[in-house]
Amino acid sequence: MNRQKQYDRELLLFGAKRNAVLELSEVQRYGMDSYGDPDYVSIYGMRPPDWHAKGARVLGRTAVECTRDGLGDAIGKDVAAIAAPCPDTSGMLVVDPFAGSGNTLYWLLRHLPGALGPGGFAAHSEKHCSSGVAHRHPELRLPLRAEWRLGRSR
Known about the structure:
Layout: H1 9-14, H2 24-35, H3 48-53, H4 60-65, H5 69-83, E1 95-96, H6 103-111, E2 120-124, H7 133-136, E3 146-150
Parallel strand pairs: 1-2, 2-3
Helix pairs in contact: 5-6
């Protein structure tokens, strides 16, 4: 019997693929095996084939942990609604303390257009995730400028 390895949270978070750069087929397989959707890991407003074609790559753990577009968009809208009554939000600093992919920061900045024109601060406590997909892949030409810092683990 030819049994293929299941591309699920166990493999990508705790197994051999945790810090491995995934091929497009692996990203899509994770989406299919876990959610029945090969486009499940949609980030920066793009389906996996689109961001992959532009040169972006994700680690196994990032495929599982990243904020997908649907949720990122909802978070961005909620934060913008909360910030709307503020007298002046231009130049607002947007912080993502757990940025692996940078997708949450991307969606926050889309909904807060005056924030640092655009910009933000992203951090992560693990070396493998500290530079983020968006920062490592300027060819994506995302409308975001982030300053990435490696946090300290305790």
